[in-house]
Write a structure and sequence with these properties.
757 residues; Rossmann fold; 3-stranded antiparallel sheet; 14 strands; 47% helix
């Protein structure tokens, strides 16, 4: 839990101690994983959000930190955040839109350094996708990792109390849980660490632990607002232009928190603040954790030494949601599924709080369209749960919606919601009864001459078996849940088949092939996932060359960017513009081989907008995979033990990079926009021979290791996607896209001939 200005004030008060890393040799350290990731300076890539995807250097930078832990004999236990109630007030803080507009304006005028500063101020590189991939990278590397059932801080406090870890690395706010000492910084370059001691803080400020917690709440957290009178100049030093934490300490000494709760300018303000303080206090004292004594999930019971644990309020489930089945907690603790699906089922809320870098009408439309897949993923899990969860109505909250919707409690939907409120429920529709055996998978791998179970393998296998009415199709329409042998490849195959079925690439009625699966099975294995992504975008009408529209007409795109408008394009230029956009967008789905360094070229406004859609789609597809995995494992939890540590690890296993990863299941790794930027450079290149182009390409894009070779792969992908679209254009009503791709291909081929590629 973050406390406003606590760490700054601790430093000002001389309460931050320093030690030498040699003192930590042999120490088991509990690590708040997200806090640790934010502390790695090398991960600060200003263009990360604009480029989309995952920066190629992150795994290398993280590995250097891990090597440093090992060098100093420190054993980390990484704890990641689980289900957590959305912050009461800061959940939808408007991003610094003026900073974003300035960033794009600076880029347009060639002031890259100024643009980077603006991007760095208004974006966060530590997002949910980033954390997801790092979790599985750490697991693959053999490190102890745990996804807490709820708050990471509460789980770390429990581990510290029971001696599982000797100390904790995390934010100073961990002191709220009664942790005796917290490391707030590790500096491997100076071989030092900084830490704070709770008892020393209490003695210097002359506070009891209860008063300390109350002072922190008055200062403000993400669950309670700053006490309004603390912002008045009366409580601040003359030279102090910002809030000062010392004011919170001062007034809590004058009177207990309950007294201050009686003095507010209005009843509405009082209600907002008091509710926040009550929720914050309950979260500090009663956040559920996995208790080591019996492996059960129940409240932490944070209290001062020697005191009985505080009682759990009767309406606790309004804050945390109802308790979930132990099997679901098990899958979450081990990172087999992320916290998003369990959180929706527990809280009755699905929150999309992150505003994309370029907010478009198309992004908002896609987010609403993807609700169908979300309901399917939730249904795959909920069919194993009790009726209350199966019938759960889940309120969708997005960054653009009204305060009435954003502040509504998902677990209590009796309140009056506006007509535009979006409610979803788990889709409990039964699917095909896949039954995959180890022997059958091994025979098919040999027959196809491949070693990995992936979408192409499954589509090829299915097409043959359906035509021959082979063993794979027997009993597939019977009632029941998919099953597999106790074998990772069999499990991988059944998960792939469930996902293909839910994406309508295999008919859920008779198990037959569809037009989509017929074309996709002919795509080369290394291009199958990008092609599937493109086809899904096409399904929702988002694979076009049309310029994007600003989501809010009152906030148009920055004029300095010179972004084309569909309504104002000159007819003579329209085909060239839309063809260029379509080529760049499509080929940007192909990952590039990049050095472990920050991107040193410009970023592209249109591609940043397009990859906001790609990120949302791929995240949703990943959640569909999680639902499929849970659907199989919740029937027989013992099968979870056969998952290897790297079953969802998408970090490259060689310098060749993607798709050479350890993952056994589809990870839907996010590509960066780099290939699209390269394609735009290619289309606008004025030279006349291949060698000059290759030389200029290497000179301009020094981050790319083999840009010319990767560009040829992108051309092959474009050709393959054209084949797919042309084949199914008539049956799926994609004639317009096929025609647009024909015009775009004419533009591409003309440039290839001119340069000699």
């Amino acid at each position: 839990m973050r406390v406003r200005h606590l760490q700054t004030h601790l430093a000002q008060q001389g309460l931050v101690n320093s030690g030498k890393l040699s003192e930590l040799q042999g120490v088991h350290v509990g690590v708040d994983a997200v806090f640790w990731l934010r502390s790695i300076q090398a991960l600060k890539d200003p263009f990360a959000d604009a480029l989309g995807g995952i920066p190629p250097g992150i795994f290398g930078f993280v590995d250097k930190e891990l090597a440093a832990f090992k060098e100093y004999g420190i054993t980390p236990l990484f704890v990641f955040q689980g289900v957590s109630p959305g912050p009461q007030h800061s959940m939808f803080v408007p991003r610094m839109d003026s900073q974003m507009d300035m960033a794009w304006a600076y880029l347009a005028s060639g002031e890259k350094s100024a643009a980077q500063k603006c991007f760095a101020m208004s974006t966060s590189r530590i997002n949910g996708d980033f954390v997801y991939f790092i979790f599985h990278h750490l697991r693959h590397k053999g490190y102890e990792c745990l996804q807490a059932p709820y708050f990471a801080g509460a789980q770390l406090a429990h581990f510290a109390e029971h001696g599982v870890v000797q100390t904790i690395l995390g934010p100073a706010g961990l002191l709220l849980y009664g942790v005796k000492s917290v490391m707030i910084h590790l500096n491997f370059s100076t071989r030092t660490f900084d830490w704070v001691d709770l008892q020393a803080v209490l003695e210097k400020w002359q506070l009891s632990w209860d008063d300390f917690v109350d002072a922190c709440m008055l200062a403000g957290t993400e669950y309670c607002l700053t006490y309004p009178y603390l912002n008045l100049s009366h409580y601040q030093p003359v030279q102090q232009s910002r809030f000062n934490f010392d004011a919170a300490v001062s007034i809590i000494k004058q009177a207990p928190l309950i007294n201050w709760m009686q003095t507010f300018p209005s009843e509405e303000m009082k209600r907002d603040h008091v509710d926040g303080y009550c929720i914050c206090k309950v979260l500090v004292q009663n956040t559920p954790v996995m208790h080591l004594s019996d492996q059960a999930i129940r409240p932490l019971g944070a209290s001062k030494p020697g005191a009985a644990p505080p009682p759990v309020p009767d309406d606790f489930c309004k804050i945390m949601g109802p308790k979930l089945p132990s099997s679901l907690y098990y899958l979450m603790l081990h990172g087999i599924i992320s916290h998003k699906l369990p959180q929706a089922l527990a809280k009755g809320e699905w929150t999309d709080k992150s505003q994309p870098l370029v907010d478009t009408k198309e992004f908002r439309a896609l987010l609403e369209d993807l609700q169908e897949y979300r309901m399917t993923a939730l249904g795959l899990i909920a069919m194993h749960m009790h009726k209350d969860i199966q019938n759960m109505r889940i309120l969708c909250k997005a960054y653009w919606e009204s305060n009435t919707i954003r502040q509504a409690l998902g677990t209590s939907l009796s309140q009056n919601l506006p007509p535009e409120a979006r409610l979803i429920q788990p889709n409990l529709q039964k699917g095909l009864k896949w039954n995959i055996t180890k022997d059958a998978v091994e025979r098919e791998l040999v027959r196809q001459g491949v070693s990995k179970v992936d979408f192409k393998f499954c589509l090829t296998w299915h097409a043959r078996e359906f035509e021959m009415e082979g063993p794979l199709m027997r009993g597939i329409q019977e009632r029941g849940i998919p099953s597999c042998s106790d074998d990772i490849k069999a499990l991988s195959a059944v998960v792939h088949f469930i996902v293909l079925e839910k994406l309508d690439l295999i008919s859920s009625e008779d198990g037959g092939a569809t037009v989509l699966s017929d074309v996709l099975k002919e795509t080369p294995a290394h291009l199958t996932e990008p092609c599937l992504t493109a086809l899904e975008l096409m399904k929702y009408g988002q694979l076009t060359g049309e310029p994007f529209e600003a989501a809010n007409p009152e906030r148009p795109f920055p004029k300095e960017v010179g972004y084309p408008s569909a309504a104002n394009m000159e007819p003579s230029k329209r085909t060239h513009i839309t063809s260029t956009l379509l080529l760049c967008r499509v080929m940007s789905l192909v990952p590039m081989r990049l050095r472990n360094d920050m991107w040193d070229a410009n970023v592209d406004f249109d591609l940043a907008a397009f990859h906001a859609l790609v990120r949302m789609l791929k995240r949703t597809l990943r959640q569909l995979v999680e639902g499929a995995v849970a659907n199989v494992l919740l029937k027989d939890l013992s099968k979870a033990k056969m998952l290897p540590p790297g079953f969802m690890c998408s970090s490259p296993t060689s310098k060749e990079g993607y798709p050479n990863t350890p993952a056994d299941l589809p990870t839907f790794m996010l590509p960066r926009t780099c290939m699209g930027i390269i394609v735009r450079f290619f289309l606008g290149y004025q030279g006349k021979d291949t060698e000059s182009f290759k030389a200029d390409l290497l000179k301009k894009f020094t981050c790319c290791t083999r840009p010319a070779e990767d560009l040829k792969i992108a051309f092959k992908f474009w050709e393959d996607l054209r084949r797919c679209v042309n084949t199914m254009a008539e049956s799926l009503g994609a004639e317009e896209l096929a025609e647009d791709m024909r015009h775009a291909n004419d533009l591409l081929e003309a440039q290839r001939r001119r340069i000699g590629m």
